[in-house]
Amino acid sequence: MNKQNMKNILKMMIFLCLVITLLHLSSRIVEPKQNTKESGIKYENARGFYGERQNSLDIIAIGNSDLYNAMNPLQLWHEQGIPSYVCAEPSQKIVEAYSLLKQTYLNQTPQLIILEVDELFTKSDVDDLDISISETLKEIFPVFDYHNRWKNIQKDDFIKEKVYNQKILTKGYKYYNNVQSYKGGKSYLKNKKKSSLTYTTQYYLNEFIKYAKNNGSQVLLMCCPTANTWTMDKHHTIQKIADQYQLQFLDFNMLLDDIDFDWTHDTRDGGNHLNDFGAQKVTHYLGNYLKLQYHFQDYRTHQDYQNWNQDYLEYHQKLKYYKGKNGFIGK
Amino acid sequence: MAYTTYIYLLLFLGSTFLLYTVFPKKYKWIVLLSASYLYYILASRVWMIIFILLTTISIYIGAIWLDKINDIFVSVKKSLDRQQRKELKEKILWQKKCVVVFILFINLGLLIFLKYSNFLISLLNISILEQFQISIPLIKLFLPLGISFYTLQAISYIVDVYRGKYHADECLSRVALYLAFFPTIVEGPITRYNEVAYQLYEGHSFDYKNFTFGLQLILWGMFKKIVIADRANMLVNYVFDDYLKFSGLSVVIAIIFYTIQLYTEFSGCMDIVRGSAQLFSIRLPDNFRQPFFAKSINEFWQRWHITLGSWLRDYVFYSVSLSAPFKRWSQFVKKHGNEYVSKLLPASTALFFVWICNGLWHGASIKYVMYGMYYYLLMMLGMYLEPVFMKIKNAFHIQNQNKFFQIFSIIRTILIVNIGMLIFRADTLSSAWHMLVSCFQGTMDIPYMGLALKDMMIVIMGVIIVYIMSLLKEKNISVREHIAKWHIVPRWTFYLTGLMIVVIFGAYGRGYDIVSFIYAQF
C-alpha cells in the first residue's frame, strides 16, 4: 500500500470518528430526558415500566397494538395479585421487541416474558433487515430515533441527564370502549395468508428467547384474538416454534368459546383490536392460566405492593370521567 | 429496497463496494452483475428476474443476428455487380428490419401487455362494450421492476446496432450488466450502450476522489429526498387528497409544493444513483440540468428527465420522421400545402408521437396521455405562433437578451410547468381542472395544510439551498470541485454539517410516512 493510500485511509478513519462523535453528541441532546410523551419519548405507555419500583414486576408482556388492547395488568393484579406490565407498541417488529426486552432488564427481573406473536409475520427479509439496521443504529445513536425533537429542543436538553421514572397508571394497557363488530365469526381462521417467518424474524426470535432465558425468565408465546390478521396456518407455524423451543403457546383465537368471546361486541374496529369488553375476557382467562401454569405469588396483601391496589382504585375512578376517551392510559 | 433505505446504503451498497474493491480488476464486473441481479431479486419477486433475462437474451441474440446479416452483405458485395448489390442491399435491409421488428415485438409487446393491457381493456369496455352491456374483466398483472427503464435501454441498443451506430456486443455479460446495473434499474437514467456498457464492464481500481465525490453526491441526493421532498409530500397529500376543502392561495401553494417535491425527489434519486455509480468510478449521464432556469417549454424538456427526452428524440421522433411513409407524406404536404405550414407540419406530426409516448410512458391512464398532450399543444402553439410572438416582441422592442424578458420567460415557463405538475399529480383530469379553477377563487388565507410551520420553514430553506446550488451549477461552477480545494477544517466542517442536517432534519422515522419514489412506479 503506498503512502497516499495510507494517508487517505487515515483521513477516512478520522472523518468516521468525527461522524461518530457528532452522532453521539447530538444523541445526548435530542434524547428525551424523561420517559413521558411531553418529553418526546416514543410510545410512553410501553415505557412506563421505568417508573415501577425496581424488580417489582413478575411479568413483562411485549408485543404490538393487539397486546395493549387485550391485556390489562391492573385487572390481572386485581384478580390474581400478579404485578405485570404491557410493553406494547403499534406495528412493533420482533427486532423492536428485542430492543425493548433489553431495556426492561435495566430495572426489572421478570419471571415471565410474554411475547405476542402476531407481530412475527412480516412481509420480507429485506424490510426486516432494514428495520434491524435502523433499530441497531437507534440503539447506538438515539438521534436516529429522536431527531425530530429538534422542533421542541430546550435549554435543559443540553445540560440535563435523563431520568426515567414516570409511571403509567394502566401499566401499558390502552382502554377503548367503543364497539365496531366483526361479523365473520371464526371464519378468519381459514383465510390464506403468508404464514412463514422470515429468516431475520427467526434470528431475532431466537435472540429474544435466548436473552430472556439467560436473564432467568421463562417465555410464553401468546396470540390475542385478531380476526384481520390471524389464520390457522399461522397458529401451526407458532406451535412448531413453541415445540422447538419447548415454550408454552397460548392462542386465544383457539379459545374463543372458552372465554365466551363475542366478535360482534368485543372488538373496537371490526376485528383488528379488542375493546375493554374483549380485554376483560382475555385478561381473566390469562390470569387463571398464569396462576395454574406458573404458580405466581399473590402480592395483593404484600406491603410493598400497596400502590398497585391504589393504582387499581385510581384507574377505576378516573375511568368514570374518561368513559368516552378512547386510548385512555391514565393520564 | 429503495435507494434511501439503510439496507441499501449501508449493507447492499457498502458490501458491493467492498467486494468490488478487493476483486481482481479483470473480474470486477462479476461483482456488479451479481449485485445487480441480487438487487433485482431482493427488490422484486424472485421469478420476475425472468423478464429482464428474457430482454437481455433477446436483444443480445438479435443484435448479433443483425451483425451477421451485415457481415454476409460485406463478404459478398465485392463479387456482385451494381444491380445485384442493390438488390442484395434491399434484401438485407428487409431481413434486418424483420429481425429488429421481431425483437421489438418481444420486448415492447411484453411492456405493453404488462403495463397497458388493463388500460386498453378499460378503454374498450368504456368506449364500445358498455353499449352492449358486456365487459372484459381486468387481468391481475405484476409489473416487473424497472421494466419501463430497461426496455427503453434494450430498444436503444438494438436500434443503434440496426442503424449501424456500433457493432453488436458478443459479450453477453456486458449486455446483461448494461441492462441490470442496480443503481439505474429503478428510476434510470436511461443510459446508452456506447456511453456506459464498457465503463461498467471494465474494472476500476479504488479512486479516493471518486469515492468521496460519490458519497457527497449521495448525501446531496438524500438531502433533497428526505429533507425536502418527503416533507413537502405531507402538505401535498393533505391538500390533493381532500382538494374540495381548499381554494385560493392554499391550492397554489400545494401545486408549487408538488413541483418542489417531484423535482427534489427525482433529481435527488438521480444524485443517489449517480453517486452510487461514482463509488465504482462509473460516470452516469445526468438527468437534470437546472430545469427551472429554462426560458421555454422546449428548453425545460431539454433540462428535465434528459435521458427520456433524448431517447424519445432518437427512437421515436427520428424513427417517425425518417420512415418512408412519413417522408412521402411530408413531400405531399410540401407540394400541396401552404409554405409556412408545410415547413412545420412534418415536425409537429412526429412530435405528436413523441408526446403521446411521453405521456403513456408515465402511466397507463388518460390523465398521463393528457399530460403529454398538454405539453404537445403548448409546443405547437409556440411553433405555429412564433411569427406572431416575434411581431409582438418587435412592436415592444423586446430583445431576447433583455434581462427582464429572460426573467419573464423563466417565470412563464415555471407557471406552465406547475400546471403540468397539477395534471400529473391530481387523481383525475376533472380534479385537476377543479383545483386549477379554485386557484382563482377563495381567499388568500392559508389554513392548516398538513405541515407544521417549522416543517414548512425547513422546506423553504431547503429550496433556497437547492436554488443556490443550481445557480452555481448554471454558471458552470462545480461546487464539489470547488469545496475540494478548501482547507481541510472548513471542508470537513461543511461535509459534517451537511450530514448532520440530513440526520436531524430528515423527514424519516416516527411521525413521517415512508415515501416511495414517485418515478419508481413508472
Describe the structure.
The complex is a heterodimer of chains A (331) and B (522). Chain A has 331 residues and is of the alpha/beta class. Chain A has one domain: SGNH hydrolase (Rossmann fold). Helices cover 43% and strands 8% of the residues of chain A. A five-stranded parallel sheet of chain A has the order 2-1-3-4-5, with helices on both faces. In chain A, helix 9 links the parallel strand 4 and strand 5 (248-251). The longest helix of chain A has 28 residues, at 3-30. In chain A, 44% of the residues are buried. Chain B has 522 residues and is mainly α. Chain B has a domain at 6-204. Helix content of chain B is 72%, strand content 0%. Chain B contains 20 helices and no strands. Chain B has helices at residues 6-22, 28-43, 49-77, 82-127, 147-162, 172-180, 193-201, 208-240, 249-279, 297-303, 306-321, 324-336, 339-362, 366-384, 386-395, 403-425, 429-438, 453-474, 479-484, 488-505. In chain B, helix 1 (6-22) packs antiparallel against helix 2 (28-43). The longest helix of chain B is centred in the first third of the chain and has 46 residues, at 82-127. Chain B is globular. The two termini of chain B are 16 Å apart. The model of chain B has no long low-confidence stretch (mean pLDDT 90). Classes of the chains: A alpha/beta (331), B mainly alpha (522).
Short description:
With 331 residues, chain A is an alpha/beta fold. Chain A has 11 helices and 5 strands; from the N terminus they run αβααβαβααααβαβαα.
Q: What layout of secondary structure does this protein have?
A:
The complex is a heterodimer of chains A (331) and B (522).
Chain A: H1 3-30, E1 59-63, H2 65-68, H3 73-80, E2 84-88, H4 94-104, E3 112-116, H5 125-140, H6 143-146, H7 155-159, H8 199-214, E4 218-223, H9 232-245, E5 248-251, H10 276-294, H11 306-321
Parallel strand pairs in A: 1-2, 1-3, 3-4, 4-5
Chain B: H1 6-22, H2 28-43, H3 49-77, H4 82-127, H5 147-162, H6 172-180, H7 193-201, H8 208-240, H9 249-279, H10 297-303, H11 306-321, H12 324-336, H13 339-362, H14 366-384, H15 386-395, H16 403-425, H17 429-438, H18 453-474, H19 479-484, H20 488-505
